[in-house]
Amino acid sequence: MITYDVNTETSEGKKRLRQVAKTCVDYGQRVQNSVFECEVDAAMLLIVKDLLLKLIDPQKDSLRFYMLGRDRSKVEHYGCKPSINVNDPLVL
Predict the structure, then answer these.
(1) Whole-prediction pTM value?
(2) Residue 32 dihedral angles phi and psi, to the nearest 5°
(3) Are 53 and 78 in contact (CB under 8 A)?
């Protein structure tokens, strides 16, 4: 699964958003505005990831890859808006 949040305050941001969405459409099915389900092998994942990372502005945009499966569940985040590790202990 690929999700993204592209800053569209500028015309460059709007262009990045269109490019990211178009690239994701080539590799998966849109299930929400910025969420795509993709069924790719490891080699194709590297290609898609490389293409998308070249499109985003890591200072303004956020890109996440969710690898889901019986044997593994993993999240890779790139760009702004760092995420918390939900597997870490929660201290209140």
Answers:
(1) 0.82
(2) -150, 175
(3) yes
- CATH for 2-79, options being 3.90.76.10, 3.30.70.240, 2.60.40.1220, 3.40.47.10: 3.30.70.240
Q: Which two tokens stand for residue 92?
A: 């209140």
**In this model, does residue 44 exceed pLDDT 80?**
yes
- Give the span between the Cα atoms of 7 and 37, in whole angstroms: 22
85's CB contacts (< 8 A; 6+ apart) are none
For residue 64, what are the contacts with CB-CB under 8 A and spacing of at least 6? 2, 3, 4, 75, 76, 77, 78, 83
